[in-house]
Specification:
The chain has about 350 residues and is an alpha/beta fold. The chain has one domain (about 1-85, about 165-350): 3-Layer(aba) Sandwich (Rossmann fold), CATH 3.40.50.300. It has helices at about 50-55, 100-110, 115-130, 145-160, 175-195, 205-210, 230-235, 240-250, 320-335, 340-350, and strands at about 5-15, 20-35, 40, 65-70, 70-75, 85-90, 165-170, 195-200, 215-220, 220-230, 295-300, 305. The strands form two sheets. Strands 6-7-8-3-9-10-12-11 form an eight-stranded mixed β-sheet, sandwiched between helices. A four-stranded antiparallel β-sheet has the order 2-1-4-5, with helices on one face. Bound molecules: adenosine-5'-diphosphate, iron/sulfur cluster and magnesium ion. Iron/sulfur cluster (SF4) binds next to loops.
Length: about 350
């Protein structure tokens, strides 16, 4: 399958405390995204998801490793590739200039590409239609729109350059369930019609379950598990992924907490990471050997990888029933207050 984006061994450090300390925000991250495919990056806050997205977009300064876009080095060809990758942010209002009309906001990315005014207007009308807004909305200002409509404008702005890749950084977390479901349906429709590849950054596992073909689980800057979404959700193999999915289940009375799906203890500081596996202080499966070196990446199935030295023993036990239940629970969460049912979502996804 043709890779739109190929991220290879990317690391990003930030100097903090007056340059005296280093935050290792992203640590040796690799993944690929194909045409018409969605890869979800999930993980707790601070795991490095946004920094990965910002490195792709050239918004985070220099980094180690390489990012190639349709076979070309993205850093070297950023000018020529302007508009081919776009980003949609979490806060719909913050990404729009309140003094600019919707027409001006949506057309803005084309100004940098020196597109004529007539062509900008034509593309703006087409892209407003794509996101379900009318030409009459073009004269409005951001404050006159609902959060869901503002996010549609954010998507229209991104899509106006007809990008091959969209980085979606928590695009639905600021929305109510009904607007969230509408935005998810819109993103699915755009991908089906245009073939756009998505990097979908989210901590909302219920949404990821529907939207993503593949999921990469990040913890303290590293991808600890990556695989097909159905596989990772039904049979998570890394203790961190199991903890993350388990934490969604815990409030539900029907699913008693399982010790093997719970993380305890302190998260290490990103400015003082331990020598071995970063999860050692929280992992229910930890043994002494875990603390000596960072676990290498190992295949645990077709296109399914984890970083854990106990992969042979974990994730193949009866505890997997818990995660089958998660799928049912995630469908319930997603359908609360939503005009879309899980089956509508499924059919949208499959076209
Ligand atoms: N500009 C920055 N300067 C210093 N530290 C940063 C900066 N951006 C992110 N970080 C740190 O990098 C780590 C990863 O952050 P981030 O990528 O925002 O994670 P996530 O999106 O998963 O919540 C965090 O420890 C965060 O505090
Ligand atoms: S390597 Fe050890 S500490 Fe790390 S996730 Fe695996 S079992 Fe847990
Ligand atoms: Mg973030």
């Amino acid at each position: 399958m043709k890779a739109v984006l190929k991220v290879t061994n990317v690391s990003k450090r930030f100097l903090v405390r007056g340059g005296r300390k280093v935050v290792q925000a992203v640590n040796g991250v690799s993944f690929q995204i194909a045409v018409r495919q969605t890869l979800a990056l999930v993980g707790e806050s601070g795991s490095g998801k946004t920094t990965v997205g910002r490195c792709i977009m050239g918004l985070s300064g220099s980094f180690d490793g390489t990012i190639s876009f349709l076979g070309q080095d993205l850093e070297q060809h950023r000018r020529a590739l302007l508009g081919r990758t776009q980003i949609v942010f979490q806060e719909p209002f913050d990404q729009l200039d309140p003094r600019m009309s919707i027409a001006q906001s949506v057309e803005e990315p084309l100004v940098a590409l020196r597109v004529s005014a007539a062509e900008r207007r034509r593309k703006r009308n087409a892209v407003l239609e794509l996101v379900g807004l009318g030409q009459e909305d073009a004269s409005l200002y951001p404050a006159q729109l609902s959060a869901g409509q503002q996010q549609r404008i954010g998507i229209a702005r991104a899509m106006i350059t007809d990008p091959d890749l969209l980085v979606l950084d928590e695009p639905t977390s600021a929305l109510d369930p009904s607007a969230r479901a509408e935005i998810i349906a819109l993103l699915m429709k755009i991908q089906r019609d245009r073939g756009t590849a998505y990097l979908f950054i989210s901590h909302d596992l219920s949404t990821v379950r529907f939207l993503a073909d593949r999921v990469a689980v990040m913890y303290l800057g590293m991808i600890v598990e990556e695989g097909p979404t159905t596989e990772v959700f039904a049979r998570p193999r890394h203790p961190y992924s199991r903890g993350l999915l388990g934490s969604v289940l815990l409030p539900h009375p029907g699913f008693p907490p399982s010790d093997e799906a719970q993380l305890s203890g302190e998260i290490p500081s990103p400015i003082d990471l331990p020598k071995g596996c970063f999860l050692a202080s929280r992992c229910p499966f930890v043994i002494e050997a875990c603390k000596t070196a960072i676990p290498p990446v190992e295949a645990v199935g077709p296109d399914h990888f984890i970083r854990c030295i106990r992969s042979d023993e974990i994730g193949v036990s009866a505890q997997n029933d818990v995660f089958e239940q998660f799928q049912i629970e995630s469908e319930r969460i997603l359908s609360v207050g939503s005009p879309l049912t899980p089956s509508t979502m499924e059919s949208l996804h499959n076209g």
